Amino acid sequence: MTRHGYSARRTLNESSAAKPSRAGVGLALGGGFARGFAHLGVLQVLEQNHVPISHIAGTSVGSILGAAYASGAPISRIIETCRTLRLRDIARWRVSRLGLASNQRLENLIERVFDSRHFEDLRIP
Asked: DSSP secondary structure string, 40-56?
């Protein structure tokens, strides 16, 4: 018993926490241009070995690649897009009161690669 009248064992056993609804591996994909693209090899190997992916989280380029995969886009399409990608394909540098770069090229790339357009439509959360 604790001073609040509940034992840790009782609290854990009677927890109302939600049970995972999907079996599989959760992925956390990091940032950094080169490291981000290394994630593609991991995704490809997991897919080839039929390892189910239940959740994907990412930061920076990892979030873009994770979202592309979660959208249902084939890994082969994502890899081919990245293989031919140049910086000028995703960024247009300019000085304006809105910032130093325009996101329009990145948005165009995302529309070409992703199979889903809205977060709630992703195949993998």
From this structure: HHHHHHHHHTT--EEEE
